[in-house]
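To whoever is on call:

I kicked off a structure prediction for a single chain this morning and the downstream step that reads the tokens threw a length-mismatch warning. I double-checked the sequence; it's 149 residues and nothing unusual in it as far as I can see. Pasting both halves so you can look.
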Amino acid sequence: MSDTQHGFIKGRSCTTQLLEVVDKLLEMHDYGGSIDMVYLDFSKAFDTVPHYRLLESYGVTGRVLEWIRSFLTTRKQRVTVGESISGWSEVLSGVSQGSVLGPVLFVCYINDMPDPETVASLVYMYADDAKVAREIVSESDRNVTDRFR
């Protein structure tokens, strides 16, 4: 797992992420630089993970792959509004948030967020939330678009 991920990782939490981020920001501030920061929250992130991509990732094979496939692909859902109940529909994307395995699979899926060394001075994630920051020493530090061409 990426060192930047703090969600659903043993010994890590939103508190450990906060402490590391504040420590890094104070260090940047002490050197006299300013900081550009973006906060990201992926909308409905747990619901939008495509099963086929998750199953093709990370080189998992054999019985473990079949176990994960069974966990992901045997789910159905229906909607109840008042007295009305819809029919059952197969769930084609997403991971179950009420389970242990679902959030772990999600963290694996987003583990390849951009490398902090190539994008910013700081990338920290907690599940589907991310903080991306860059220390600004000179005006040219604000322009990183050339790196993505």
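Update from on-call: the warning came from a stale cache, not from the record. Cleared it. Sanity check on the structure: The first strand starts at residue 34 and ends at 41.
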